[in-house]
């Protein structure tokens, strides 16, 4: 395995639940073999006490992971939705620059309005809002210079929020919180 021969190594598997969900009796043979091989390889990578290989799995659905995977991923770190302070920082970062500056009062309203949004939701919201002044140009878009496009306003975000909604329902978030209480790292 490449990770062992190229130590120190990190193996990162995003959306690990897509291949390592709980095994079922209806599952096809290829899927069962894939999971079994993954578990064998995982054991091989992590069994060497001198080894410098770290395996990280990321998922939004930890409750769907196979128990054998959970036993091997002993450190489970829950990353919650960004709180108001983090949302403020993320929005400021995404909006830095003259054309994207908002008055502090509008920024604070936006922070309140985006409760329940993930980091990627906030990014999509900022991108959608940033398109509002450009869309207003219509056919004039070809003749207007970048510095002539109006600045972003709070209203642009209000319109964008009708299109970009939080990607995770509150009930799903509560389910993740509950799972973390039972299985997550302290």
From TrEMBL:
<dbReference type="InterPro" id="IPR027417">
    <property type="entry name" value="P-loop_NTPase"/>
</dbReference>
<keyword id="KW-0413">Isomerase</keyword>
<dbReference type="GO" id="GO:0005874">
    <property type="term" value="C:microtubule"/>
</dbReference>
<dbReference type="GO" id="GO:0016853">
    <property type="term" value="F:isomerase activity"/>
</dbReference>
<dbReference type="InterPro" id="IPR003959">
    <property type="entry name" value="ATPase_AAA_core"/>
</dbReference>
<feature type="domain" description="ATPase AAA-type core">
    <location>
        <begin position="5"/>
        <end position="81"/>
    </location>
</feature>
<keyword id="KW-0067">ATP-binding</keyword>
<feature type="domain" description="AAA ATPase AAA+ lid">
    <location>
        <begin position="106"/>
        <end position="138"/>
    </location>
</feature>
<comment type="similarity">
    <text>Belongs to the AAA ATPase family.</text>
</comment>
<dbReference type="GO" id="GO:0005524">
    <property type="term" value="F:ATP binding"/>
</dbReference>
<keyword id="KW-0493">Microtubule</keyword>
<keyword id="KW-0547">Nucleotide-binding</keyword>
<dbReference type="Pfam" id="PF17862">
    <property type="entry name" value="AAA_lid_3"/>
</dbReference>
<dbReference type="Pfam" id="PF00004">
    <property type="entry name" value="AAA"/>
</dbReference>
<dbReference type="GO" id="GO:0000226">
    <property type="term" value="P:microtubule cytoskeleton organization"/>
</dbReference>
<dbReference type="GO" id="GO:0016887">
    <property type="term" value="F:ATP hydrolysis activity"/>
</dbReference>
<dbReference type="InterPro" id="IPR003960">
    <property type="entry name" value="ATPase_AAA_CS"/>
</dbReference>
<dbReference type="InterPro" id="IPR041569">
    <property type="entry name" value="AAA_lid_3"/>
</dbReference>
<dbReference type="InterPro" id="IPR050304">
    <property type="entry name" value="MT-severing_AAA_ATPase"/>
</dbReference>
<protein>
    <submittedName>
        <fullName>Putative ovule protein</fullName>
    </submittedName>
</protein>
